[in-house]
Amino acid sequence: MARMLPEPTPETRHFWEGCKDGELRLQRCTECTHSYFPPRAFCPKCGSRDVEVYAASGKGFLYSYVINHRPRPDMGTEPHSIAVVELDEGPRMMTNIVGCPQTPEALQLDMKVQVKFEKQTDDISLPLFEPAKG
Amino acid sequence: MKPKSVAVVGAAETTKMGKIPDVSVLGLHADAALNAMKDAGLKPSDIDGVATAGVSPVELAHYLGITPTYADGTRVGGCSFMLHVRHAAAAINAGLCKTVLITHGESGRSRVGAGGFGRNATSLMGQFEMPYGVTSPPTMFTIPVLRYMKTYGVTEEDLAMVAVVQREWAALNPRSSFKDPITVDDVLNSPMIAWPFRMLMCCLVTDGGGALILTSADRAKDFPNKPVFVLGTGESVETPMVSQMEDFNTSKAFRVSGKKAFEEAGIKHADVDHLMIYDAFAHLPLYGLEDLGFVKPGEAKDFVRERNTAIGGKLPMNTNGGGLSYMHSGMYGMYALMESVRQMRGTAAAQVDGAKISVCQGVGGMFAAAGTVIFGNEA
Fold first, then answer.
1. Spatial CA neighbour of B39 closest among B6, B10, B7
2. Residues of B tagged active-site
3. Is the confidence at residue B119, as pLDDT, over 90?
4. Separation between Cα atoms, residue B118 and residue B130, nearest integer Å
5. Hey, are the CB atoms on B146 and A65 less than 8 Å from each other?
6. Which of B133, B138, B293, B150 is nearest to B202 (CA)?
7. Pairing relation of β-strands B207-216 and B192-195?
8. Within its chain, how far is the Cα of A90 from the centroid?
């Protein structure tokens, strides 16, 4: 049983194309400069349609999470984190923290994290996050 | 709305509660509806407004043989019924209809006639949350809490205490699923569901239903039971994605809905005798106490630990035992409303002596929506 994968829509395709190319793409309003996520064709703060896609740093910090202990064959056999990361550019996004033990001791709120794209299929790579190096 | 212009004149839960393998979802709606009509001394032909969530108001009306001039299918999760009350009050005041039936029924445990869970991989949730394992309440509703705990120094013991106090209330309710006392240690030693949540911090999964009948206050005196007046109502929605909540320390939907209801009712917090806060998980009453303004941000944990919400406390809360110990079929809001109505009628199993005002706070989705209804029993 594979994990559920996203089906991009016209409004979100740039994001998933970016993930495939190893780039975390956000959008920002060219009028009010607000950065936002998830993708849409207008600024959710001021309503302007004048928005642009840009490559984000892929860096942020761990804002909140849980460690799921219930059986999830699609997510592997061990307890796993489900986390919200706040990006340096401002928006928050759901993800999994990888590359460290899935324990409260290893997963400290506010720790720095960086994006790590994990290929699922030829079309979809998921933006996961790992503890920041250096 | 004008306070006390509309009243609850019929209210009843399903005949059975908990595990009901021999009744479908639609059958539970009907069972609750028939019980509420009996309670109010009405027949289906007396009802001219319907509201429900889970099944459509079309299914409900046709099944019961009702020909409505008002139908509300608002479905925003477990607080849908609070919104139904609010909309019904407005509709009655506007003359759209005279007598509204609001029903809920769910086969959460037995899954009889319940259908499946739809997954839409093109939705925002399907694209940006579900791929990370976020697909059910234990991995959704729980997401904000570690941030809240860090901000205010809330401990696992504080979360556990919410469940302990509610179990004390449940012990007084013969219809509760769980009645045996539990300790903080029992909660902290129960199986891990999703860190930091243990099993006893999570709601039950049961079968049941409930129904309400509302009409204008001037007609309410002609019914067999003591009318329960609607003093004020509120509603709001925030986000379908828990990751996109504005602030993980507080629910914007709770704050907006609660403020609106208190303003409408024209009451102060000190006037409130009884409180229901939808408790799908142990952190919800803490958020609710703060977001409704009963305590300041960060103070709810102490308020609960000091037994203000417990038996004999100054603000009895979740007196039916709540979703943690009484029952939780999926959309629990109807059961919270039922307990508020019973408290206002003076018929609750754990009756709060002399209670005159009850606040009932619902949540929908994972902090996605909120509905507030304030009831009173004095005309």
1. B10
2. 278, 326
3. no
4. 12
5. yes
6. B138
7. unpaired
8. 12
